[in-house]
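Weekly modeling sync, notes
Attendees: S.R. (lead), two postdocs, one rotation student

Agenda item 3: backlog of single-chain predictions. S.R. asked that every request posted to the team notebook include the full sequence so nobody has to chase files. The rotation student volunteered to paste the first one in as an example of the format we agreed on. Action items at the bottom.

Example entry:
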Amino acid sequence: MAIKEDKPPFEEKDGPKLQDGKKDQRDELTPPPHAIGPEKSVLSSMIQDPEEYIGRAVEGQLTAAHFYMPSHGKLFQVLVEHFESGKTVELVALSQHLMDRDLLDGIGGPSAITEIYTFAPTAAHFDSHLSIVKEKFILRNIIKSCTESITTAYDDPEDVQEFLDSVEQKVLEIREASETTEEMDVKTAVSEVMVYLQEFLAGDRGISGMTTGYGELDKMINGLKAPDMFVIAARPSMGKTSFMMNLIEHIAITSDKPAMVFSCEMSTVQIVQRLVFSRARFEFQKLTKGYQPNKADLKRIKDSSEEVAKSKLFIDDTAGISINDLRAKARRKHRDEGISVIAIDYLQLMKSTSKQASNSREREIAEISGGLKALAKELNVPVIVLAQLNRGPEARTGSSLGVPRMSDLRESGSIEQDADMVGLLYRKVYYADNQDDRDEDDGEAELVLAKNRNGPTGNIPLTFLPALMRFETRAFSPEPN
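Predicted structure, as returned to the notebook:
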């Protein structure tokens, strides 16, 4: 039987060109990174001891695509299929199986199978050879991705920012694909559960996620956890930004965790000013009325400013930021600073630059919402998103006047779908009929937790202090009969 020669798959010769128009000669003369010996060694071990090494190869997320030689990839696929079907993997039966399927010539004939079988006298180096095969595959993927990006760049894409985001995403996908997840055995999992139970009973661990500073909210959502998307929605002037910054203040300053805020509405100076004076519990408006702070006031302001300054709080105040720009900035900050939470103020002020989004506002909001949820999963951090409600609350009558619902989310039902939690901020006094009722405002507010994917829903009582731009916990009050 004639043996079909299996030639290595060299890259196409029309490689990327340099700035002077000449081709990079390496693409014509040098094959991409590969390791034929380790590929044969891995396959040899799999044939000699299939029970041990086919299983280990699959657990290590090795696939046919990892092999540079097409024949090696085909043989790997057949070995895995043969093994998973429960058939005995041995040289004679394997050769017959390949022959019956007209695959033997494509792999190189009987002599090629025999050569691979005897290639590795011992499987002692299986793990190291497996790593080499996977590393060469990663390098080839990087070359392929970069070559495609260079070609597209020379074609002068219409949307450069969207193209830049796609280039960055390709590199991240290569990294994610190269990472393997260790399987946790049941015994270890049970042990962790019992440790958690003991800590809970001892009062050492009641919340698994990051605390928010609001006890009732923490109980209901079990803390902010990755990769949750927490949407906080309200009508204008309800205090959405204040509530979000109260959460971020607790996380970034009180709990000392890196956090990033994207503000499409307020400048960095305005946010920091509000944060410093609110934390110092000093009414900034007093300064505009000629009030002179006393020593106690000045000390609180000084202490607050120092706490804010030394925190790892990062603020980006790009107006109308696109989802692509936001993702790129968040990735870099997460890589450099290890941010633990992202907050966006607010969703409807963002943009999507895709062509589909340009024709439909609902489609644009859906892309932004889906992009933020994908970002939470990609970076494995919780994302807090502010959103605007439509005029539905004002259209209601009686006791329902002003009471928000999830259906009031503006412009797209995809926000409700993508969110893991939806909190609707509500202040009854906002809808008071007369000025006297407004003057008697005691700051009563509620966060209606309308959606909680992994826990209960309900109302969380709050008190709003407008002079300090702060929401504080309010005790439950019984409803009148």
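Discussion: group reviewed the output briefly. The mean pLDDT is 78.
Action items: rotation student to repeat for the remaining queue; S.R. to check formatting next week.
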